[in-house]
Amino acid sequence: MTADYKVAILGAGFAGLCMALRLKARGETSFVVLEKANEVGGTWRENTYPGCGCDIPSHLYSYSFEPNPDWPEVYSAQPDILAYIKGVAEKHGLYNHLRFNSEVVGATWDETAGLWRIRTVDGGTVTAEAFVTAWGQLNRPKLPPIPGRDSFAGPAFHSAHWDASVDLAGKRVVVTGNGASAIQFVPEVAKVAGQLTLFQRSPNWIVPRMSRPYTPDERANFRAAPQSMQAIRDEIFEMAEARLAAKRAGTLPVEEVPIPLAHLHAQVADLDLRAKLTPDYEVGCKRVLISNDFYPALTRPNVELVVETIDHMTPQGVVDATGRLHEADVVIYATGFETKSFAGETAITGIAGQTLATAWANGPEAYLGISVAGFPNLFMLYGPNTNLGHNSIIYMIEAQVDYVLQALALGAPISVKAEVMADYNARLQDDLAVTPWAGSCTSWYKTPDGKILNNWPGTARAYAEAVAKFDAGAYEVTKLTQPAE
Ligand code: NAP
User: Fold this and answer.
1) Is position 289 within any domain?
2) Beta bridge partners of 174
3) 188 in the same domain as 91
4) Which has the closest alpha carbon to 368: 421, 446, 444?
5) Which atom of ligand 1 is nearest to the CA of 159?
6) Burial (CB count within 10 angstroms: exposed 0-12, middle 13-18, buried 19+), residue 482
7) Which of 396, 441, 444 to mutate to test the pocket of ligand 1 (most atoms within 8 A of CB)?
8) Which tens digits make up the pLDDT trace of 390-409?
9) C-alpha of residue 144 to centroid of ligand 1, in Å
10) What CATH number is given to the structural domain containing 191?
């Protein structure tokens, strides 16, 4: 049986589109991108909260092969990033390969035909010789398990499902969570809300956001001399790599963290507020955040930072552990994402009926974050242990795509050897044990018992080097079974 496509790609975010772009650049036309939504963009389509932007500079947080002379500033905002992604997809004719409103609900390896049968939410099936998943790590919003949450009478939504129809002007707004998403929208909401109450479970280390608009002259120069963009990209990349080295060097004691502490002290004079905002764990254990306007927002008269835990919710608002009711018209959950399953609810079945859920019973793992033993020609982009805390994920994705292209060039169904994958992950966890993420904090990078599932332990360059050359010896060709008589 011939498959419908050589390659089926799940997801039209940065990673899925990168795979599609690279296939197209090679002259490949037999591929499809299955996307649950009705537009490209992934996380940059989903997150529309006020102030949303990227904390990696844009000349690095973009495809290396599609530099953009028109980035408006050093760190760009969500609308500019989304426009960039759509523009690249249009420029390369990718919309012809996109199938929208086609959430993948499951995929099964057909051992006789040697292809993937991929089921979409509308009941359809797509067959493909290879299945590339690009489902992202941050797209399953997590709501906090607060007793009485559903009893709240007013509008309530997650930061990744921002409800722009709710007018926050003059309202009493309660926000739970103070991670990378919250610190971007809290200053914006504080400007218009009557009262903003922010519930913080643990503070973050925050450093200044060194952004500025690019001048018209600079942008003209980028257009005229594209190599100047590459030079900026290289410089940002090297600075980011050096930051990782600095973090790894220290599980530094709190007194030795001059930049974030100076930032806090410069922006918050009130000693009580400062104390509440000072972390008691190592810099870099959670993602270090960047912001110039979060601390000042907390010093506004209409903003209160609450560090008591939330006890329960009522129709009127949020009750903290001291029994105090914080009345609210609107509640916003900035409580992050379910980041540990990687595949979400998507049911993936490989050789001999083994499911990915079973294979990952002790936590998701893969070889190089890309391949899983027993799942032939299944390739993951931004899979287990490929997230970074210090550099651009686009760089990682491009390295993975190049690796997958080499694997596809073999033209046979292949599966990583189980022992290779096991050795790789044992070494990986040893390396992760001495990183800052293993420190004394909670984060979305690790499970409650401390196993780090999301992050790569080294530099981005070290990862690119590890995947630069497809290592055929780590794989075996998958035998097909004979059709039943
Ligand atoms: P997050 O970093 O996981 O933060 C979630 C926040 O909610 C934390 O403050 C957490 O407290 C709190 N929380 C979670 N469950 C809770 C509960 N049951 N009760 C009370 N508090 C609870 O999520 P995020 O802010 O959405 O960011 C996730 C990631 O997305 C970032 O690390 C980053 O990689 C990416 N992101 C990037 C940008 C950017 O580029 N600027 C912007 C947004 C997001 P604890 O800290 O105590 O756990």
Assistant:
1) yes
2) 197, 331
3) no
4) 421
5) 26
6) exposed
7) 444
8) 899 999 999 999 999 999 99
9) 12
10) 3.50.50.60
| Residue among 138, 197, 292 whose CB has most ligand 1 atoms within 8 A, to mutate | 138
User: Is the Cβ atom of 137 under 6 angstroms away from ligand 1?
Assistant: no
Return phi, psi of residue 106, to 5°: -170, 165
Dihedral of the alpha carbons of 209, 213, 217, 219, in degrees to the nearest 10: 90
Q: Is the CB of 102 inside a 6 Å radius of any atom of ligand 1?
A: no
Residues 318 and 362 in one domain: no
Q: Is residue 262 located within the same domain as residue 385?
A: no
Instruction: State in Å: Cα 2 to ligand 1 middle.
Output: 45
CA dihedral 35, 341, 394, 79 (to 10 degrees): 60
Nearest CA-CA partner of 375 in 120, 108, 8, 105 = 108
Distance CA 316, CA 172 (A): 11
- Return the ligand 1 atom nearest residue 53 CA: 41
pLDDT band, very low/low/confident/very high, at 255 (cuts 50, 70, 90)? very low
Residue 247 has pLDDT above 50, yes or no: yes
What type of residue is 8? Answer: A
State whether the beta carbon of 180 lies less than 6 angstroms from ligand 1: yes
Which of 86, 78, 82 has its CA nearest to residue 52? 78
CA angle 14, 15, 19 (to 5 degrees): 120
Strand partners, 195: 172
141 lines ligand 1 (CB under 6 A): no
Instruction: Pick the closest to residue 384 from 360, 401, 406, 402 (CA basis).
Output: 360
Encoded tokens for 419? 């022992």
Number of domains the chain contains: 2
For 352, left (φ over 0), alpha (ψ -120 to 50), or beta?
A: left
Mean pLDDT across 297-318 = 98
- Amino acid 435 reads T
Residue with tokens 């502490």: 261
328 and 412 in a common domain? no
DSSP state string for 176-230: E--STTHHHHHHHHHHH-SEEEEE-SS---EE-----BPPHHHHHHHHH-THHHH
- The burial class, CB within 10 Å (0-12 / 13-18 / 19+), for 406 is middle
What is the residue whose two structure tokens read 């292809």?
A: 115
Alpha carbon distance 182, 51 (integer Å): 9
Whose tokens are 């643990």? That residue is 202
Q: What is the model's pLDDT at position 482?
A: 84
Q: The whole model's pTM is what?
A: 0.96
